[in-house]
Amino acid sequence: VQSAWSVNGGAAAVDPRDRGLAYGDGLFETMAATDGAIRWLDYHLERLAAGCGRLAIPVPTDVELRRQIAAQTPPRGRAVIKIIVTRGIGTRGYRPPDDPAPTIIVGSAPWPSPDPPSAHGVVMATCETRLGENPQLAGLKHLCRLEHVLAQLELKQRGLDEGLLLSTSGHVVSATSNNVFASFGSRVCTPRIDRCGVRGVMRRLVLESCAHLGLEAQELDMDVADLLRADELFVTNAVMGVRPVSRLDDTVYGVGPVTRRLAARLGTVAGD
Amino acid sequence: VQSAWSVNGGAAAVDPRDRGLAYGDGLFETMAATDGAIRWLDYHLERLAAGCGRLAIPVPTDVELRRQIAAQTPPRGRAVIKIIVTRGIGTRGYRPPDDPAPTIIVGSAPWPSPDPPSAHGVVMATCETRLGENPQLAGLKHLCRLEHVLAQLELKQRGLDEGLLLSTSGHVVSATSNNVFASFGSRVCTPRIDRCGVRGVMRRLVLESCAHLGLEAQELDMDVADLLRADELFVTNAVMGVRPVSRLDDTVYGVGPVTRRLAARLGTVAGD
Question: How far apart are CA B100 and CA B103, in angstroms?
């Protein structure tokens, strides 16, 4: 699968005046495709529409989004599909135009290769890089991701792939490209996303799945000490699904039954 | 003066995989040009290089930046010149490539017209929209500006052009597209830029000019009450220079001698 991109259904060129580039004025979704089908597409489009609503970006029609996504999704094999929706081209300055015409950018990328050895678990360290807090942006998968880039720069220097991100006030928020969960017996806990962080599609699926598995889901304020006391730790995103964490800083975790059951239900990994 | 843009010195098309678009992974400068000359160009390029250093983006050569800027600067009249430097095209994911090739985007836009009536002063209200705090990003003119966009959306609804931005912890940071200064006698005060905000080129020039004018410059923590007690209030940016504030919320200010002297020294407005 080669990389392929379209902008508003046409050639892969973005106008340099696009507000997505100028100000991070837009949103994105990263999705898993298998043999032409996007996993959890309804949830991705629902989150995208909700995000546009919060930013007062006109929501492209569902038909249009699905058409442009389908056009970039390879009919065979696995691929990662990304969609970006920006507020479109603007005149100079932060002020949004009166009548914005959103830009829709869709691309496919090869599936991550080699597939991370999920069964062995993700090795994770707490990042020095912190996330600023702003309730107005919390939960949104917006384009302003410089903090995540800096966290990945830090991890690269430390020879790690995934890190634990804290907010500037010291609360646990997420992993760098995943949400994070800790289980205590049958209680499945994840940080609240009310001051920063992304409300992940797989995070939502995990929270919704708990009831079906006789588990109790909780969103709450958590700090690192809470994670270190957990029976199991796992991370989630829409591409890699549910993956156990084998180590956070100096604490080692096994792959437990809660992680296994959620991974079995929500597809992907944990067993292979 | 028509809008005109170049990307890496060539056609005005940005690759949809550019990390500036994907993650706000880049920086920008907005500059004033008159008859082909950029005001304060050395300071803009110095800040741009410092920003690249902090983000570990390779700094394009000074010669290259000046060449691309010159190519987009109209030889006659006034224009606003913008340069964006991003970390360039990336593979999927937040992690920066090992060997990034920065993208340089330069554009010119017509001078704001009608020229805001600066002599009458800027009318400003305190925004509900707040700025998140993150010392790692403070001072940088990076591309992640969604908070400023939301502030401008708020101001638009309220029928105002410029707002006062506070941090989530309640400190004064800046105006929406300007830095802010308050004078108390011969003391010229501006908020510290250590947790959020942009270290403006005109802000630097004002601070440096104070010594020459027998004024005392101070960077400190300020709250709205401090501004309301000020003798004079003014805002600064590289395009519009020094402009008096005539009103903040319900408090009215005159155009005083400190603002007039700084405006006279640093060019632009206050008198016309």
Answer: 9
